[in-house]
Amino acid sequence: MLRFLFILAVFALATYLLVRVFQQRGVMPQPRPRQRPEPRRIVAPDDDEDFLRDLDRKRREPEDPAD
Question: Which of 8, 22, 59, 63 could make an SS bond with 27 (beta carbons 3.0 to 4.6 A apart)?
């Protein structure tokens, strides 16, 4: 029984040391840090192409023509 416990302890120690060596050398993949999603960029009206195109269209083709 004592022999079995000694073999088990040696095996556990060897396994622990092997895992520690792998962690130190980078053989085992390290967990990646969580990436935060990029915040949405707020576009000012003078930088928004759709807004400027719509203004230009409204300037050229007014909805209510002045009589």
Answer: 22
Instruction: Report yes or no on 49 lying in a domain.
Output: no
Per residue in 24-64, pLDDT tens?
Answer: 877 656 677 788 877 777 767 777 788 888 888 888 887 76
Please report, as a single letter, which amino acid is at residue 54. D
Q: Which two tokens stand for residue 39?
A: 């915040």
Q: pTM for this structure?
A: 0.38
Alpha-helical regions (H) of the chain? 2-25, 49-60
Residue 15 lies in a domain: yes
Range of the domain at 18: 1-28
Q: Is residue 7 part of a domain?
A: yes
Q: What is d(CA 38, CA 32) in angstroms, rounded to the nearest whole number?
A: 17
User: Do 34 and 40 meet the contact criterion of CB atoms below 8 Å apart?
Assistant: no
